[in-house]
Amino acid sequence: MTYHAPLADMSFALKYGASLLPAIEEGFFGDLTMDDVEAVLAEAGRVAAEVIAPLDRVGDQVGATFKDGVVTTAPGWKEAYRAWCEGGWNGLASPTEWGGQGLPQTVSAACTEMWNGASMAFGLGPLLTMGAIDALDAHGSEALKRAYLEKLVTGEWTGTMHLTEPQAGSDVGALRTRAARERDGTYRVTGQKIFITYGEHDLTENIIHFVLARLPDAPPGTRGISLFLVPKFLLNADGTPGTRNDVRAHSIEHKLGVHASPTCTMVFGDHGGATGFLIGQENAGMSAMFTMMNRARLAVGLQGVGIAERATQQAVSYARERKQGRAPGMPATESAPIIVHPDVKRMLMTMRALTQAARSICYATAMALDRAERGSDKTAREAAHARASLLTPLAKAFSSDIGIEVASLGVQVHGGMGFIEETGAAQFYRDARIAPIYEGTNGIQAIDLVTRKLPLAGGAAVESYLGELRSIVEAVNATNDPALGWSGLRLDEALGSLTRATRWMLAHLDKDVNEALAGATPYLRLFAVAAGGCLLAQQALAALRLNTDAGSRIALARFFAENIAVQAAALERTVVEGAAGVIGAEAVLAE
Ligand SMILES: Cc1cc2nc3c(=O)[nH]c(=O)nc-3n(C[C@H](O)[C@H](O)[C@H](O)COP(=O)(O)OP(=O)(O)OC[C@H]3O[C@@H](n4cnc5c(N)ncnc54)[C@H](O)[C@@H]3O)c2cc1C
Fold it and tell me: Is the CB of 121 under 6 A from ligand 1?
């Protein structure tokens, strides 16, 4: 089980799929050069392959263990985490003011893909710390920032995210954890949270919990939720960890995958309540939490890309070695590596194409975040913010869905050996399964896309994106290169399906929202296959122009357009014609 960062593909997707190169050339990131970016990616690739990937197996087999309230991570985990932090990787895109490197989110996204490709269970911890840094930086008081940000940025302390309770999963507004005001301005937090990732561990001396709770006089639902910072150890006057706070891990879960990532039940208030510090305003916790979750949603999409990449690498390598059957014309005494069989090639190409399309969508989302953060004028920043908001559910849901599909194809390419744990293909499949569930299930992402993101700016945000995709298709058609096969036509059709389905969705949001909700998931997939196809075509055109790796990039874009983007037509039918069948399903489900 090895992992090699696909640096050439990543760099090409960044430069030409996410348009990082033109942004760098126009000085958008100051004096940052593409050489700098490539040096960072190369070093991250080395760390991912040499430090993290070798631990993935022991992490799966031994996992995190729990005894008497103490969580012990798998052998080697602590040393790897320390080495990773010492490399400055935790604060790659964090503000320089707090000790971060201030690099673009786009570059951080590529690195996040690598950490998670090397080991999803490892990548998951920092993913939450980075989200916590964003939330504290955007909404915290100066005093809280001064006390906690630097240590979170270096990774000396980790951050967690506490939303879920037994009765409050997707429905965050149902949470019951309570916070009571104290005279000194702090709060007493009492209650129980479940499924808290890295809620307790031995990697760092302090853990900073970001906890959603309800004040006694809070309005019901999400309008009555506040966000609190609850450290495992309260700080001494000199900022070092002091007294233990009233929060503990009660147990950890036994899970299908990501065994090395402890998933904890957390208890607040055995001794009267944990001391918490308000982040932002009372009852405005959801907006602070959304800052944290949005970045985390993109990162979960990148987990899908990372695991898909790793599963593909392993499947290609196995298919080159495993011999079965013959290629046409081969002597009966010989057998061929399975990679020569068209059906195996189809599986491997599907794996590569889905991975590269999801990568392109995620990187484009990260670029929109960079433009939203750093754009020179307000209008540009707002437009970029709307683009990032539109693309985030696509990045999260499509990429995490294909993570499973690709890992499953990886098992299939291995035949029976794929079902046997020793090859590692099964672990990718098990690990990948969580990503469509946490950080808002993919069903919730689809609802978010349809009900909140499509109506942004009166539909102008989605229209402007469709316009950009259309100009890519026009450029494909204008090249007339026979190597692109039917790509132009098929992408044109896919975009037509997406445009019609988008208008249908916007009309039905007012007319009959249940019909829109019934088609939300196929609509998200339709959006992703059309957008992914266009982004791959855009990279193929760049490769043609530059004459670098043009053959393979064109072949991949063509495969996607002719084999995957064509699904858009059927998905359009599912969206606009299939809703009645969903809504009328009661009779079947009542049986
Ligand atoms: C390994 C792991 C790690 C986790 N880490 C964290 C963490 O660090 N912090 C944290 O707070 N939580 C964490 N979670 C919890 C996770 O975020 C929730 O499991 C997830 O949000 C779904 O909630 P639920 O499990 O209650 O499912 P439910 O909300 O009960 O959903 C069940 C199904 O119903 C669907 N559904 C629910 N409501 C609707 C609706 N309104 N419309 C349409 N469909 C709907 C869902 O899409 C899903 O398919 C973790 C979970 C796991 C398993």
Answer: no
Q: Are 535 and 17 in contact (CB under 8 A)?
A: yes
The alpha carbon of 404 and the centre of ligand 1 are apart by a number of angstroms equal to: 17
Question: Is the pTM of the predicted complex or chain greater than 0.85?
Answer: yes
How far apart are alpha carbons 482 and 401 in whole angstroms?
32
Please check the confidence at residue 1 and state whether its pLDDT lies above 70.
no
Residues 126-134, mean pLDDT to the nearest whole number: 94
Q: List beta partners, residue 266.
A: 193, 249
Strand partners, 278: 228
Please state the atom number of ligand 1 nearest to the C-alpha of residue 198: 8
pLDDT tens digits for range 533-546: 999 999 999 999 99
Three-class DSSP category at 1:
coil
What digits encode the pLDDT tens for the residues 145-154?
999 999 999 9
Helix (H), strand (E), coil (C) string for 73-92: CCCCHHHHHHHHHHCCCCCC
| Residues in Cβ contact with 461 at an 8 Å cutoff, skipping those fewer than 6 apart | 383, 386, 387, 389, 390, 453
Residue with tokens 């309540």: 273
Question: Which residue carries 């040096």 as its tokens?
Answer: 39
**Mean pLDDT score, 15-36:** 96
